[in-house]
Design goal:
The protein is an alpha/beta fold and 840 residues long. Helix content is 59%, strand content 7%. It contains 37 helices and 14 strands. Strands 2, 3, 5, 6 and 7 form a five-stranded mixed β-sheet that branches. Strands 10, 11, 12, 13 and 14 form a five-stranded mixed β-sheet that branches. The longest helix has 31 residues, at 137-167.
């Protein structure tokens, strides 16, 4: 022993030069213990000078890593010999390695020690790479998350045969198919953001009710999967001589600790539909199938998506998350967690709340916001202009710093902590691990970062309307008027003082709404929101040149959106949106009616920089392509929703620019026509893709070649003449160039070319006219086609030419004056323009 100590102490000072002086003695003591343990096991200690220097640095930062090496020197030796210490695993590689490490296990009793030994080996590899600076934050979180998934899956594979031997195989009552457990990873595990000492939050599920077959005893599927789930938890959490694998938290499952440990898909869907709470939506944002039947797990999450991500803009989520954060803040104060980098002001949770707020509000309308990882979500928010670039940069930088700090806090002793240490040596270790020479420099930087995060959090979560002057006499008077109505003695006087020219009508309208069934049927939260909103709307209307007229128009909108009170939350949370709504209603009755018909447009009122600047044709096309690119091409309903929202939002921008005189009158029709053209072109592409997937493309076989045939949309009337107005129909004629009447499409379910084009036109009309939850795009008039209502829906270009030259009425030639090609095949465009020129 004396020789070993002398050996350690005689190491050249240069090898310790990078370490802070107070940490050197501890590392030297660890080296003595490691060298002795290695020699006792017949293993050669690390001798490479460069690797040894890294070892000293890693051990100085983490007692946990040092003891992993000392307690089993073979681990470090194996990691170096195999090269695994120097590798970043590929996605899915951890699972394959776990299967190899646990191969041949037939006795579940052997699972615990084998699984723990493998976990310790991999934890040593991951922690070493992180502390040595060989891995960035993304690699470390990914590796920890994949390690947890691999442990879960490997344990399941080992446990299931024993259970099947006793009870048989579970089968679905309806499908008659074998059932498998689905393990959902929640929170950081689901988002590939696991830290060193995280609990893993899990939910167990299985597809169908039913019972087992082939065992010595028949039990229900629920009982079977509860038994399997309990065995899985025990395999991971039991603290043996080798330690534990992961702590497991099952409290996020339906009904919490009082609920069944495993639940079938139908029961789970019913629970979330009828009893799901806001915090459960928040919890499911990051959910991911991590073990068991991954395919069925994805199907389950897809079925739960409407609960998590509402198909409308859900600004009510702001209140829910604000309340959750308030509870956390109370907990922080109660437990004195001010030094907590996760829950404290400016901590990790506040960054996550910022991202997840936008996900809950907009995730149903913007598929890109369904991403699980917070860094990816922040990047999407930047791309969509929901957060400024500097905010996203500061939050992303802060997240990296705080999560690396969190990992080093936990890697120090493998303890689940988020509190900054108070011991000076521990403080120095954390500071050194984060690249600082002393604690003060690190702590100063940390405080600055957390203040920045908290500032951005406050900006996003502030309740501006709640903070407006509650002592304002006019607001108090309007609030009293709303509550009491016509019984308020000073009702008319209060309104007249604020410039309302028709106080009787305003009071009558307010009283009618207050006494209406729609108001009574609002939820308590919805009524509370409207009670706060009405006085604010009266105040804003009083600032316009015609307060009574303006407020009555605003009331049209407020009454229309009452079925979804989250729109009230939008107007309360964003004073700018309410202000813009009032201004537009003051300028135009059409705008108030249009917004009432399409409440999603309230979102467009949040940023007046874009509201009054309708984009040009090129920008419209780019915006449309970006929106459709992220929609599944097989989801026609979602495509229609996106197209409809795009149409309405851009028409509103034109109207806003029009009534504010930011856009010359002669340019209004140009913009409205450009919107319609962009929409028509994209509708044609979507409809074509759907039909081609089902039937293949139409081709011309007449010349022994396969030449794809074309289709075109011709606009007549106001659209053809660039004179489209608000609410105008689209007068359309459809042409094709399929002259071979016997020609068929190329797909597995071929149809005649003429049938293909007829169905294509029908689908285009259907997409434009159909009312979805977001409304409809345009009404379509197709009576100007050859032979009118009695003619074919789609005409070949040859037939169109013949008709125009031999059968068309004079008024049809007059209509042709304003006709023009707007979408489709360029070949047909040239043919049509030639026919038009000849006829005219």
């Amino acid at each position: 022993m004396t020789k070993l100590i002398k050996s350690a102490l005689s190491i050249a000072d240069a090898e310790w030069a990078s370490l802070p002086e107070p940490l050197i003695a501890g590392v030297k003591a660890y080296w003595v213990m490691y060298e002795k343990a290695a020699i006792n096991e017949g293993i050669r200690p690390v001798s490479n000078s460069e690797l040894k220097t890294v070892l000293y640095r890693v051990w100085s930062q983490s007692d946990f890593v040092a003891r992993l090496c000392i307690n089993a020197p073979a681990r470090l030796h194996d990691l170096c010999r195999s090269g695994d210490l120097f590798l970043a695993y590929l996605p899915g590689e951890a699972q394959k390695r776990a299967q190899v490490a646990l191969a041949g296990l037939t006795n579940p009793a052997d699972l615990k020690p084998r699984l723990r030994h493998w976990r310790q080996r991999e934890m040593l590899r991951i922690a070493w790479r992180d502390l040595a600076g060989w891995a960035d934050l993304s690699e470390t979180m990914q590796a920890l998350s994949e390690l947890a998934s691999a442990c879960l899956d490997a344990a399941l594979c080992c446990l299931q045969p024993g259970l099947e031997k006793d009870y048989g195989v579970p089968y679905g009552e309806q499908s008659k198919k074998q059932q498998h457990l689905v393990v959902l990873g929640m929170g950081k595990l689901g988002a590939y953001e696991l830290n060193f000492s995280s609990d893993i939050d899990l939910i167990f599920a299985f597809p169908e009710e039913g019972e087992t077959r082939g065992g010595t005893r028949v039990i229900s599927n629920e009982e079977y999967f509860i038994k399997l789930g309990r065995q899985l938890i025990d395999a991971l959490t039991t603290n043996t001589a080798e330690g534990f694998v992961f702590r497991v938290d099952m409290r996020l499952r339906p009904f919490g600790e009082s609920g069944a440990l495993a639940m079938n898909f139908d029961a789970m869907a019913l629970y979330y539909q009828t009893q799901g709470r806001d915090w459960e939506r928040y919890a499911l944002i990051k959910a991911r199938p991590v073990a068991g039947d991954i395919k069925q797990g994805n199907a389950l999450l897809e079925s739960l998506s409407p609960f998590v991500f509402r198909r409308y803009l859900d600004f009510g989520a702001i209140e829910a998350l604000r309340e959750m954060k308030l509870l956390i803040a109370q907990q922080v104060r109660k437990k004195s967690l001010t030094r907590n980098i996760k829950l404290g002001p400016g901590g990790i949770r506040e960054i996550e709340f910022i991202g997840q707020l936008f996900q809950l509000i907009r995730g149903g309308c913007e598929p890109r916001l369904k991403a699980r990882g917070i860094v990816e979500v922040l990047q999407v928010l930047l791309e969509l202009n929901y957060l400024p670039a500097f905010v996203v940069h500061e939050l992303t930088t802060a997240y990296d710093f705080l999560r690396r700090t969190e990992n080093r806090l936990q890697a120090y002793a493998d303890k689940q902590t988020h509190d900054l240490p108070r011991n000076e040596i521990e403080q120095l270790k954390i500071a050194y691990a984060m690249g600082f020479t002393d604690w003060l420099a690190f702590y100063t930087c940390l405080q600055k970062i957390m203040r920045t995060v908290h500032h951005h959090f406050e900006q996003v979560f502030a309740a501006p309307q709640a903070e407006s002057s509650s002592e304002d006499q006019h607001k108090q008077n309007f609030a009293t008027l709303w509550v009491i109505g016509k019984e308020f003695d000073q009702a008319y006087e209060v309104l007249q003082e604020q410039g309302f020219q028709q106080p009787e009508e305003v009071v009558h309208r307010l009283t009618a709404l207050r006494e209406s069934a729609s108001y009574r049927h609002l939820s308590s939260r919805g009524r509370d929101r409207l009670d706060h909103l009405i006085p604010l709307a009266l105040l804003a209307s009083a600032q316009t040149h015609k307060p009574s007229v303006t407020f009555l128009r605003v009331m049209v909108v407020l009454e229309a959106i009452g079925r979804r009170s989250s729109y009230y939350a939008l107007l309360l949370e964003h004073p700018m949106a309410l202000s813009q709504l009032v201004q537009l209603c003051a300028a135009s009755p059409w705008v108030s009616t249009y917004v009432a018909q399409h409440p999603l447009l309230l979102d467009e009122l949040l940023d007046p920089r874009f509201l009054y600047a309708p984009p040009n044709r090129a920008t419209l096309e780019h915006e449309m392509n970006q929106l459709i690119h992220h929609v599944n091409e097989n989801d026609l309903e979602h495509q229609m929703d996106v197209l409809c929202s795009f149409t309405q939002s851009n028409i509103l921008k034109v109207a806003a620019a029009d009534v504010s005189q930011a856009l010359p009158l002669m340019k209004v029709s140009d913009h409205l026509t450009a919107i319609a053209e962009v929409v028509l072109n994209k509708v044609l592409v979507c409809a074509w893709q759907h039909l081609v997937q089902r039937h293949g493309a139409p081709v011309d076989h007449s010349l022994g070649t396969q030449c794809e045939l074309g289709f075109a949309i011709i606009a007549y009337g106001k659209m053809g003449g660039y004179e489209l107005g608000y609410g105008s129909d689209l007068d359309l004629v459809f042409l094709h160039n399929a002259e071979d009447i016997e020609g068929v499409t190329t797909g597995d379910k071929p149809i005649h070319n003429t049938v293909f084009f007829a169905r294509l036109a029908q689908r285009i009309i259907h997409m434009l006219r159909t009312h979805t939850p977001t409304g409809a795009m345009y009404d379509v008039d197709i009576r100007l086609r050859p032979s009118g209502a009695s003619g074919l829906l789609v005409t070949s270009i040859t037939s169109f030419s013949r008709y125009q030259n031999t059968q068309a009425w004079t008024w049809e030639h007059q209509a042709l004056v304003r006709a023009r090609f707007v979408a489709g095949s360029s070949l047909i465009r040239h043919s049509f323009e030639s026919v038009r020129k000849q006829v005219l």
